[in-house]
Design a protein that fits this description.
Shape: elongated
Structural class: mainly alpha
Strand order of the largest sheet: 1-3-2
Distance between the termini: 35 Å
CATH superfamily of the largest domain: Winged helix-like DNA-binding domain superfamily/Winged helix DNA-binding domain
Strand content: 5-15%
Radius of gyration: 19 Å
Length: 173
C-alpha cells in the first residue's frame, strides 16, 4: 500500500507519533470525538490501533519500548521512523486536491503541522492558487448556464469561503 492509499486516520496517528514516542491509548484519547485532534478527525480506539498496525506494517512506525498500563498489562510505546517522518512531512506540504477535502484533510494537516512544528506556508500558497483556480472554473460554468445549478452554486460559495479561510491563515503567518 502506498502513501497515496493511506487513510486520514493513519496520517493523524503518524502525525501524533511524529513529535515524540507514545502509546496507542494516548493517541486514541486524542482522536476520540472530544479530543483535541478528534474535533477535526476522530477515530474509535479499535480503528486507532488498526491504523497504528498499518503504520508499523509499512515501516512508518516502530515499537521502542513498553510501560505499565493503568488496568494491567503493558502499553507498547511507538515512534515514527525516519521514513514515516519524511512521508508525513511530504503529506503535510501537499495541498488537498478537492474542495470537499478542505474541511477534513486540510484542517487535519494544519492541526498536525502545528503539533509537529512543520512550516506549511508554502503549501498554503499553492493551496490558495488551487482553490482560486477551482473557483474561477466554477464561476465560468455558472455564468454561461441557462438555469441555476444549485450544486455548482454551492461549490462556488464553498470555494469563496475556503479562499477566505486560506487567506486568513496566510495573513496570520
Amino acid at each position: 500500500m502506498t502513501t497515496a492509499e493511506m487513510r486520514l486516520g493513519e496520517w493523524a496517528c503518524l502525525g501524533l507519533l511524529y513529535p515524540a514516542p507514545t502509546h496507542g491509548f494516548a493517541i486514541a484519547a486524542r482522536l476520540k470525538p472530544g479530543g483535541d485532534v478528534g474535533r477535526v478527525w476522530s477515530l474509535s480506539r479499535a480503528l486507532t490501533y488498526r491504523a497504528l498496525d498499518q503504520l508499523a506494517a509499512r515501516g512508518y512506525a516502530v515499537a521502542v519500548g513498553e510501560e505499565p498500563g493503568i488496568a494491567g498489562g503493558n502499553r507498547t510505546i511507538l515512534a515514527a521512523t525516519r521514513d514515516g517522518r519524511a512521508q508525513l512531512r511530504r503529506w503535510l506540504t501537499t495541498p488537498v486536491e478537492h474542495l470537499r477535502d478542505v474541511r477534513s484533510e486540510l484542517l487535519l494537516k494544519l492541526l498536525i503541522a502545528s503539533e509537529c512544528r512543520i512550516d506549511v506556508a508554502p503549501m498554503l500558497e499553492r493551496q490558495h492558487a488551487q482553490i482560486k483556480q477551482i473557483a474561477t472554473t466554477l464561476s465560468a460554468k455558472v455564468a454561461g448556464a441557462e438555469q441555476t445549478d444549485v450544486v455548482a452554486l454551492w461549490r462556488i460559495e464553498s470555494s469563496q469561503a475556503a479562499l477566505r479561510f486560506v487567506e486568513r491563515l496566510r495573513e496570520d503567518d
